Amino acid sequence: MHDPAVIRAQFAELLGRDDERIELARAALLVAAERDETLDVDAAMATLDAWAATLAERVSADATSLQRLAALRQFMFEELGFRGDVHDYYSPENSLLHSVMDRRLGIPLTLGIVFMELGWRIGMQFEGVGFPGHFLVRLAGEESDLLLDPFDHGSSVAEDDCRRMIAASSQGALSYEPEMTRSIGKRDMVARLLLNLKIARLREKDLPGALLAVDQLLLVFPDSPPELRDRGLLLYQLDRYRAALASLEDYLRVRPDAADRAAIERHMLTLRMMLAAH
């Protein structure tokens, strides 16, 4: 068992670092640890290290990046058995890294975190790619610049594949643009993980769970207007009126020209009346 306040402080410290110094897997595990008091973050990190050590024994020092990639694919997807969850894709469990590591089942982002963490430990130049609706991994370097799909055994992704994926995920509303495959930082990856959790909890009508994700998102990106607004609205629904009002006030402070300002001001008026009546 651990103290959630200590976990929250560790997460805040980690995300307060420069992007390159953020330990991505540890950040993802700390996200999960606030939801599972039995999770041993250090033990989970040691598991990743042990997997990487096993993998490293199979890769020669002079191996090319493509040879390392082949070894990683074989080890992670064939030997360890990681795979994409096609049956319960939106389950919150697929956004909790320790659960993904235990079940060997996840979504593109969490599988991508394991994929990159193992690759980094054997000297691979991996970068996260914030492709809309489907996280990808870039293998950068002099030998190659490949897009890889961790949801599909680390398979290579061509531009035509990107066009098909964006058309399918947006139901034809979006067209592929090259900037969709730009690399993103670790902080953005953690935010994407939390957004996935937030959406998954809202789908289950788990308002406290969604609020926890929003609170963590505000540690990643303080004063994020959408999260300040959603925090206020979630607190309102949870009958925490004073905190709800403060969050909505913060939202309009950082976004005075918000398109939904009139609706938010109506909520704030109602909250003030309810607080005055107590």
From TrEMBL:
Coiled coil: none annotated. It comes from the Bacteria. Gene3D superfamilies: Tetratricopeptide repeat domain. Residues 44-194 form the Protein SirB1 N-terminal domain. PANTHER family: F-BOX ONLY PROTEIN 21, SI:DKEY-261L7.2. Belongs to the UPF0162 family. This is Tetratricopeptide repeat protein. It comes from Eiseniibacteriota bacterium.
